TrEMBL record:
Organism: Noccaea caerulescens
Entry-linked PANTHER family: KINESIN-LIKE PROTEIN, KINESIN-LIKE PROTEIN KLP-3
Regions that span the bilayer: none
CDD domains on file: KISc_C_terminal
Keywords from the UniProt entry: ATP-binding, Coiled coil, Cytoplasm, Cytoskeleton, Microtubule, Motor protein, Nucleotide-binding
Origin organism lineage: Eukaryota, Viridiplantae, Streptophyta, Embryophyta, Tracheophyta
The protein's name in its UniProt record: Kinesin-like protein
Location(s), subcellular: Cytoplasm, Cytoskeleton
Length: 754
C-alpha cells in the first residue's frame, strides 16, 4: 500500500490540489487523533516524504524481535498518516459539495448579473453617445488648457530659476544665520531691557486707555457742543435777521427825518431871509419917517413964514400917518416871523435830538451785528474743526466739490442752468443740486466751491491738511472728474500768473515757510521730490534726464518701474528718480520739467487734455535736536486723467488707446471704492497700476482728500452726475484713522513717562 502510494504519486499530487499549490502545514488541515497512541499527529510534505523514504536500521540482522517492533512502529505511523489523509479527503469532499452549491448559486447570480449588465450596457451606450458629443467640446477646452499648460510650463521654468536663486539666497542666509545667532545673544540681553520697557509701556498703555476714554467723553461733549452751537447759530441768525429788519426800519426813519430836517432848515433859512428883508424895509421906513419929520418941521418953520404951503403939509401928514400904519403892520409881521422862527428852532432841536438817539441806536445795532457775525464766524470755525475731528475719528475720505466757470462759447442763459446751491443752514456751503431731465439730484460734501471761488479760497480750506504732512502724517490729495472740468488747473494752476497758482505750488510754498519758522524750535527737515505718470498702464519717470528712458516712439517707457509696499505702509517705486530739494524755486523748476515730459493731447472736448495720471510725491523727514524726536510724513498730490466718452471726445488711434486705458483704470478705482464702501474682505487694488499705487491712501493710515471737479455746461450733465455719485460713494468710505509716524529714543520715552 505504501509502495502504491509512492508509485502513483497520490500524496505529491494531493497537496498542490488541496492547498492551492502551497505546502501543506498543520494549519491548513485538521489533524486526526482517532486511534493514535502518540497524541495528535501533524504531517507536512517533508514528514510524509521522510516517512516513505525511511529505511529501518537494525542493530542485528537476526534480532527479529527488534525488527518486528520497529516494523510495527513504522506501520502505526503509516496508518496514522493514512487516517489523516482519509479524514482530510472527507473534509475536501464536504468542501467540494459546498463549493458546488455555491457554484450553482453563483451561476444563477451570474445569469441575473448578465441581464442587469445588458441593461447597464444599453444605458452605458446612451451615456457613451452623450460623452462622444461632449468629447468634442472637451477637446476644444483641452487645446486651450494645453496652451495654458505651455504658458504654465514657461512660468514653471521661471519659477525653477527663481527657486535656484532662492536656494542660493538660502545658502547665503545660512551663513548669515551664524552671524545672527551671535547677534541673538546680544539681542537677548536687550530683551531684558525691553521687558522693563514693556512694563512701562503697559503702564503707559493703561494711561492711554484712560485718556482714550476721556477723549471719547470729550467727543460726546463736542457733539453736544456742536448741537448747542447749531441751535445758538440758528438763534443768532434769526437775531441777525431781526436786527437787520430793525436796522433797515431805523435807516428809513433816519432818511425821513433827514428829509424833514432839510425842509425845516430850508424853511428856517427862508424865514431868516424874510426877517432880514423886513428889518431892512423897517429901517428904510424909519429913515423915511425921520426924513419926513425933518421935512415937516422944516415945512412948519417955513409955514409960519409961508401960509401957502398948508396943503403940502396936510398931504405930508397924511403920508406920515399911512407910513406909520405900514410900520406897525411890518412890526406885527416881524413879531409873527420871530415866533415862527422860535417854533422852527424848537422842532429842529427835537429832530436833532431824535437823530442823535437814532444814530446811537444804529451804532449799538452795528456793534451787536458785528458781535453776532463774529460769533457766527467762530461757530463756523468750531463746526469745521469738530467736523474735521469727527471725520478723522471715523476715518472717512473727505471730499471737496469744485464747479468751474462757464467758458466763452458755452450756453450761459438762466434757462440752461442745471446746477444750483441750497441756502439752508444745514447745506450752506456744503450742498449742490443738479437737474437732469426735470429730476433734481441733491448731494452734500465737506465743502462745495462755486465757480467764483479763487485758487486762494481753495488752498485756505486744505492748508491744515498740508500742515499734517509736516507733523508726520501721510496725506493724499487727488483731483477727479471728466476731461475739461478743471482738474489740472486746480492742482497746477496757470503758469505765469501768481494769483492763479494751483494747489501743488501753494502747498510747497507753505511747507517751506513752515520749515523756516520751525527752525527756531529746533526742527530740521529734509525734503525729497519724485514725479511720475501712469500712461497706458505703464509707469514713466518724469524727472529722468534720459529722454529715451522717459518715452520711446510709441509712448511706452522701456524701463519697468515696480511698485513696492513695505510693512510700514510706505510705497516705493523701484528705480524712480528722487531729488533732494531745498527751496520752492527748485521744485518749480522740477514741475516745469515734469510738465514738459507729461503726455497731453487734443480732443474734441479739450484743447490740452491730460492723457495720463500725474503723481507728485513729497517725502518729509524731520528731526528735533532738543527733544530728539523724529517724524516722517508724505504728501501725495495727484492729478488724475479725465474720464471721457468716445462719442463726445472723437478719439481715434493713439488717443483711442489712451482713452480706453484711462477709463479702465478709473473703472478699477470705482471697483476699489465700491468694495471699501461695502467693507468687503477682498479689495481689488491690484487690478490697475493706479489703484495699487493708491493702496496706502485708500486702504487706511492716511489723511485723504478728493476734489471732484465738474463743469456747469448743460451738455455735460450726465458726466457731472456720474462724478457726483462717485464722489458721494467716496465720501462714505471709512478707511481707518491716520497715524502719526514719530520715533523717539527709549531714554527720552521713559523720561516722558516719568
Amino acid at each position: 500500500m505504501v509502495g502504491a502510494m509512492a508509485n502513483n504519486g497520490r500524496i505529491r499530487s494531493a497537496f498542490p490540489v488541496a492547498n492551492g499549490s502551497k505546502d501543506l502545514t498543520s494549519n491548513s488541515a485538521p489533524a486526526s487523533t482517532a486511534g493514535s497512541e502518540y497524541g495528535p499527529a501533524e504531517f507536512t510534505r517533508e514528514d510524509v516524504e521522510a516517512l516513505l523514504n525511511e529505511r529501518i536500521k537494525y542493530k542485528s540482522k537476526f534480532n527479529y524481535k527488534e525488527r518486528c517492533e520497529n516494523m510495527m512502529d513504522y506501520i502505526k505511523r503509516l496508518r496514522l498518516c493514512i487516517r489523516w489523509f482519509q479524514e482530510l479527503e472527507l473534509d475536501y469532499a464536504f468542501e467540494q459539495e459546498k463549493l458546488k452549491n455555491a457554484l450553482e448559486l453563483n451561476e444563477k447570480h451570474c445569469g441575473d448579473m448578465e441581464v442587469s449588465l445588458k441593461n447597464k450596457e444599453e444605458e452605458l451606450n446612451l451615456i457613451i453617445e452623450e460623452l462622444r458629443k461632449n468629447f468634442e467640446s472637451v477637446q476644444i477646452q483641452l487645446v486651450k488648457e494645453q496652451t495654458e499648460k505651455l504658458a504654465a510650463n514657461d512660468s514653471l521654468g521661471k519659477e525653477k530659476e527663481a527657486r535656484l536663486a532662492v536656494e542660493k539666497l538660502q545658502a547665503a542666509l545660512t551663513e548669515e544665520l551664524g552671524k545672527t545667532q551671535g547677534e541673538l545673544q546680544t539681542a537677548n540681553q536687550r530683551i531684558h531691557a525691553v521687558n522693563d520697557m514693556y512694563k512701562l509701556l503697559q503702564e503707559y498703555n493703561s494711561s492711554l486707555q484712560l485718556y482714550n476714554s476721556k477723549l471719547q467723553g470729550d467727543l460726546d461733549e463736542a457733539h453736544e457742543t456742536i448741537k448747542r452751537g447749531e441751535k445758538e447759530r440758528t438763534g443768532i441768525v434769526e437775531n441777525i435777521g431781526n436786527l437787520k429788519g430793525q436796522f433797515k426800519a431805523l435807516q428809513d426813519q433816519l432818511a425821513a427825518s433827514k428829509v424833514s430836517q432839510d425842509d425845516i432848515v430850508k424853511q428856517k433859512d427862508e424865514l431868516v431871509n424874510e426877517i432880514v428883508g423886513l428889518k431892512v424895509e423897517i429901517q428904510q421906513v424909519k429913515d423915511d419917517r425921520d426924513r419926513h419929520i425933518m421935512e415937516v418941521k422944516n415945512l412948519q418953520a417955513e409955514a409960519t413964514k409961508q401960509n401957502d404951503f398948508k396943503d403940502i403939509i396936510s398931504e405930508l401928514e397924511s403920508k406920515r400917518s399911512s407910513q406909520n400904519k405900514e410900520i406897525e403892520e411890518l412890526q406885527d409881521q416881524l413879531v409873527a416871523s420871530e415866533r415862527k422862527l422860535q417854533v422852527a428852532d424848537l422842532s429842529t432841536f427835537e429832530k436833532i435830538n431824535e437823530f442823535e438817539e437814532q444814530k446811537e441806536s444804529i451804532i449799538e445795532l452795528k456793534s451787536r451785528l458785528e458781535e453776532a457775525e463774529l460769533k457766527l464766524i467762530e461757530g463756523e470755525k468750531l463746526r469745521k474743526k469738530l467736523h474735521n475731528t469727527i471725520q478723522e475719528l471715523k476715518g472717512n475720505i473727505r471730499v471737496f466739490c469744485r464747479v468751474r466757470p462757464l467758458l466763452s462759447g458755452e450756453n450761459s442763459s438762466e434757462e440752461a442752468k442745471t446746477i444750483s446751491y441750497p441756502t439752508s443752514l444745514e447745506a450752506l456751503g456744503r450742498g449742490i443740486d443738479l437737474m437732469q431731465n426735470g429730476q433734481k439730484h441733491c448731494f452734500t460734501f465737506d465743502k462745495v466751491f462755486v465757480p467764483s471761488a479763487s485758487q486762494e479760497d481753495i488752498f485756505v480750506e486744505i492748508s491744515q491738511l498740508v500742515q499734517s504732512a509736516l507733523d508726520g502724517y501721510k496725506v493724499c490729495i487727488f483731483a477727479y472728474g471728466q476731461t475739461g472740468s478743471g482738474k489740472t488747473y486746480t492742482m497746477m494752476g496757470r503758469p505765469g500768473n501768481p494769483e492763479e497758482k494751483g494747489l501743488i505750488p501753494r502747498c510747497l510754498e507753505q511747507i517751506f515757510r513752515t520749515r523756516q519758522y520751525l527752525r527756531s524750535q529746533g526742527w530740521k527737515y529734509e525734503l525729497q521730490v519724485s514725479m511720475l505718470e501712469i500712461y497706458n498702464e505703464t509707469i514713466r519717470d518724469l524727472l529722468s534726464t534720459n529722454k529715451e528712458a522717459v518715452r520711446t516712439d510709441n509712448g511706452v517707457s522701456p524701463q519697468k518701474y515696480a511698485i513696492k509696499h513695505d510693512a510700514s505702509g510706505n510705497t516705493h517705486v523701484v528705480e524712480l528718480t528722487v531729488v533732494d530739494v531745498r527751496s520752492s524755486r527748485e521744485v518749480s523748476f522740477l514741475l516745469d520739467h515734469a510738465a514738459r515730459n507729461r503726455s497731453v493731447g487734443k480732443t474734441a472736448m479739450n484743447e490740452q487734455s491730460s492723457r495720463s495720471h500725474f503723481v507728485f510725491t513729497l517725502k518729509i523727514s524731520g528731526f528735533n535736536e532738543s527733544t530728539e524726536q523724529q517724524v516722517q510724513g508724505v504728501l501725495n498730490l495727484i492729478d488724475l486723467a479725465g474720464s471721457e466718452r468716445l462719442s463726445k471726445s472723437g478719439s481715434t488711434g493713439d488717443r483711442l488707446k489712451e482713452t480706453q486705458a484711462i477709463n479702465k483704470s478709473l473703472s478699477s478705482l470705482g471697483d476699489v471704492i465700491f468694495a471699501l464702501a461695502k467693507k468687503e474682505d477682498h479689495v481689488p487694488f491690484r487690478n490697475s497700476k493706479l489703484t495699487y499705487l493708491l493702496q496706502p491712501c485708500l486702504g487706511g493710515d492716511s489723511k485723504t482728500l478728493m476734489f471732484v471737479n465738474i463743469t456747469p455746461e448743460p451738455s455735460s450733465t450726465g458726466e457731472s452726475l456720474c462724478s457726483l455719485r462717485f464722489a458721494a460713494r467716496v465720501n462714505a468710505c471709512e478707511i481707518g484713522t491716520a497715524h502719526r509716524q514719530v520715533n523717539v529714543k527709549p531714554i527720552d520715552y521713559r523720561l516722558s513717562l516719568g
